[in-house]
Amino acid sequence: MIRLAHATSGGxxxxxxxxxxxxxxxxxxxxxxxxxxxxxxPRPDRRCDxxxxxxxxxxxFRISQDRGPGARGCxxxxxxxxxxxxWLMRRLDGAALVVINKFGRQEAEGRGLSPVIAExxxxxxxxxxxxxxxxxxxxxAFADGLSQELPPEEEAxxxxxxxxxxxxxx
Length: 170
What we know:
Structural class: alpha/beta
Number of strands: 7
């Protein structure tokens, strides 16, 4: 049985905050959550720095490149994202649940964290993914209609995670 869900929250950074709150609460309840949470650090002179904290106890990877105050366009450090994905892939053996903060452009193109998501699904692990509206169509194609859409509310996400953790233990 495939246990796959996604949530989409409006507004810049809101899905990151939602999933960070979820992970904090799940961590207090035991079980091994493997995945990613993005933490953004505001900068007064330009856009924020983006760090990807690897769960459950891994390092953080700076996934944004500082291209200077006048730079435009994508500032994602694809190599850092790939390194984070490799680290996560090695942690799937002990996982009870996988939470991925974002299915973005890299994932839509088959890179980034998409191999981790695919491997977790193959292993029968429950997977929860944050998806922004811009990449929702690509997510639906990737998930092939198998992803349950959850409301972007912490209680709904907690309920889904707990139900899947309990069904996995049974």
